[in-house]
Specification:
479 residues; alpha/beta; 7-stranded parallel beta sheet; 7 strands; 48% helix; elongated
C-alpha cells in the first residue's frame, strides 16, 4: 500500500532534520553543568572585588599642540639678521647689477628710453621733414633751445615779441633752418594772425637762405613738437595789492595766449603723428619749479604758472582718454646759473612805484624776500635745460616700456624737473601740510630779518624808496 504525500513529507523531515539535530544536541552540556560553570566564573571574578574604573577628573591633561611654524617672511628676517654681512653684500651686488642692466637696456631702447632706430631726423639728401614750434623764444634760454634743436636736425618755428628779435634770432641760425614769427604774448587778439603765419611758414622752402622760389612745391615738413616757454617770461615780484596793473599781461602771457594757440596746432601735431611709422607728437610746457610753493610777493607769478601747469596736465589726461597719439610734458625749471629771459618792452611790464601805503607796509619784507633770489644755492646750467628739452622732443621716438605695453598702459607724457632746487620745491609743495609750509616760510622770513638787521642793505632800501623795483627770478638776474 503506497504512502500518502503527508507521510512522505514527515518521513523526509525526520530523516534530514530531527535525526542530525538529536545527534548534535547529545554533545551539549546539561543545564546543571552550565549553572555550575557560571557560579565558578562569578566566584573567580568576585575574589578580588568589583573592578573600579578611574574617573575622568583624575586623568592628566593632554599635552598642548605644537606651535604653528613662523611665516616665511619672519624666517627670512631672522635669517637676514643672523647674516647681515651676506645680505649687505647681496644687496650691493644686486643694485650694481640692476643699474648695469638698466643702463644697457636704456641705451638699447628696451625700457622705453632709448632712441628708436631707423628714423633719422635728417634725410640722406640733407632735407629736413620735421618741424618744432617754440612759443616765447625771446629769452636766452629760448634762443639756446632753438639753436640746439636746429643743430639736431629740426626745422624751428619760433615766436618772438618784436621784429627786431625775429631778425636777431634768424641771424643767429647756423644754416637757415630757423623761422622767427612775431607774437606779442600779452595780446591774445594777435593769435589768429600768428597761427596763419605759422601754417604759411611750413610751406616755405628750407633752408631759408637758398636763392630762388621761397616756397617749396613738394610735401611740406610736419609739425612734430610744440614747446611753450611763454610762462617763463619775466614778471616782477609785487605785493598782491600792487599787482592789478600786471594781472592781465601775466595771465595773457602764461595762460590765455598758449591756450588760444593750442586749438590751431593740435590738428597739425595729430596729423603728423598719425602717419605710419611716425613718432608721437610732443607738447612741452615749461614753468618755474618754485611757483609750486606760494611764496610771498610772487602771488601773480605763482597763480599764472600754476594755472598753466594745471591746464597742460588736464590736456594730457584728455588726450589719454581720447586715445590720441600725443604726449604732453610739463617741465619745471629750477635755479639756473645764468639769466635766461631777456625782458622786452612788449612782454615785460615796466617797473612802476608802488602806492605810498603799500610801500610803507611791504617794503622791508619785500627787501628780505624778493631780492634774496637764489641766495647761496649752487645753481644749475642752462645746458641741462636745453638737453632735457631735446630729450623730451625726441621722446616720441622711444619704444614703449615692455611691462607697460603688456599691461596696456600708454605713455602719454608726464611731469619732469630740471635745475637746482626743482625737487625741493616739489617736495615742499606736495608732501608738507599747508600749516607746516606756512611755518617754514615764516621762519625763513624771521631768519632773513635777523640777517638784514646785522647787515642792512641800504642800497636796496633806497631803490625801493625811489620806486625802482628790482627782481630776481628762478634762473634770472636783474635786467
Amino acid at each position: 500500500m503506497s504512502q500518502s504525500p503527508l507521510d512522505e513529507l514527515s518521513t523526509l523531515v525526520e530523516s534530514h532534520i530531527l535525526v542530525p539535530l538529536s545527534s548534535s544536541l547529545s554533545y551539549l552540556p546539561s543545564p546543571e553543568r552550565v549553572h555550575d560553570a557560571l557560579l565558578d566564573l562569578w566566584a573567580s571574578v568576585s575574589r578580588f572585588g568589583p573592578p573600579v574604573l578611574p574617573s575622568l577628573s583624575s586623568l592628566p591633561p593632554p599635552p598642548p599642540p605644537p606651535p604653528p611654524p613662523p611665516p616665511v617672511w619672519e624666517r627670512a628676517v631672522d635669517g637676514a639678521r643672523e647674516r647681515k654681512a651676506v645680505v649687505a653684500a647681496a644687496a650691493v651686488g644686486l643694485g650694481l647689477a640692476g643699474a648695469w642692466v638698466f643702463t644697457k637696456r636704456r641705451k638699447s631702447g628696451v625700457l622705453g628710453m632709448g632712441k628708436k632706430e631707423g628714423r633719422p631726423v635728417v634725410g640722406k639728401d640733407g632735407s629736413r621733414k620735421e618741424a618744432v614750434a617754440i612759443l616765447g623764444a625771446d629769452s636766452a634760454l629760448g634762443r639756446a633751445i632753438a639753436l640746439d634743436l636746429e643743430a639736431r636736425g629740426f626745422i624751428v618755428l619760433a615766436s618772438v615779441s618784436t621784429p627786431a628779435a625775429a631778425d636777431a634770432l634768424e641771424a643767429a641760425s647756423q644754416g637757415g633752418w630757423i623761422k622767427a614769427l612775431v607774437l606779442d604774448p600779452i595780446q591774445p587778439a594777435d593769435v589768429p594772425s600768428f597761427t596763419r603765419s605759422l601754417s604759411g611758414a611750413l610751406s616755405l622752402r628750407f633752408p631759408l637762405r637758398l636763392p630762388g622760389d621761397p616756397y617749396q612745391h613738394s610735401m611740406p615738413p610736419s609739425l612734430v613738437s610744440l614747446l611753450n616757454l611763454l610762462p617763463l617770461l619775466p614778471l616782477p615780484p609785487l605785493p598782491l595789492e600792487a599787482s592789478a596793473s600786471h594781472l592781465s599781461s601775466a595771465l595773457s602771457a602764461a595762460l590765455l595766449t598758449p591756450l588760444s594757440i593750442l586749438p590751431a596746432l593740435l590738428p597739425l601735431l595729430r596729423s603728423a603723428s598719425s602717419r605710419p611709422g611716425a613718432p608721437a607728437g610732443i607738447i612741452v610746457s615749461l614753468t618755474e619749479a618754485r611757483t609750486a610753493v606760494p611764496l610771498p610777493f610772487f602771488a601773480l607769478l605763482c597763480a599764472a604758472q600754476q594755472a598753466s601747469r594745471t591746464a597742460f596736465d588736464a590736456l594730457r589726461n584728455e588726450l589719454s582718454a581720447a586715445g590720441d597719439n600725443l604726449r604732453v610734458y610739463t617741465l619745471e625749471v629750477g635755479f639756473l646759473a645764468s639769466p635766461h629771459p631777456i625782458p622786452s618792452s612788449s612782454s615785460t611790464p615796466a617797473a612802476t612805484a608802488w602806492p605810498a601805503h603799500v610801500q610803507g607796509l611791504y617794503a622791508p619784507a619785500f627787501a628780505r624776500a624778493a631780492l634774496t633770489g637764489g641766495g647761496g644755492r649752487k645753481k644749475g646750467e642752462v645746458k641741462a635745460v636745453v638737453n632735457k628739452v631735446a630729450q623730451l622732443v625726441l621722446a616720441g621716438e622711444e619704444r614703449p616700456v615692455w611691462l607697460a605695453h603688456a599691461l596696456g598702459i600708454r605713455n602719454m607724457g608726464g611731469q619732469e624737473r630740471v635745475g637746482a632746487g626743482a625737487w625741493t620745491y616739489v617736495v615742499f609743495a606736495r608732501l608738507l601740510p599747508p600749516r607746516a609750509l606756512d611755518a617754514l616760510l615764516s621762519l625763513r622770513d624771521r631768519l632773513l630779518a635777523r640777517r638784514a638787521a646785522r647787515k642792512p642793505r641800504r642800497a636796496e632800501s633806497e631803490r625801493l624808496g625811489q620806486g625802482e623795483i628790482g627782481w630776481v627770478d628762478v634762473g634770472r638776474e636783474e635786467a
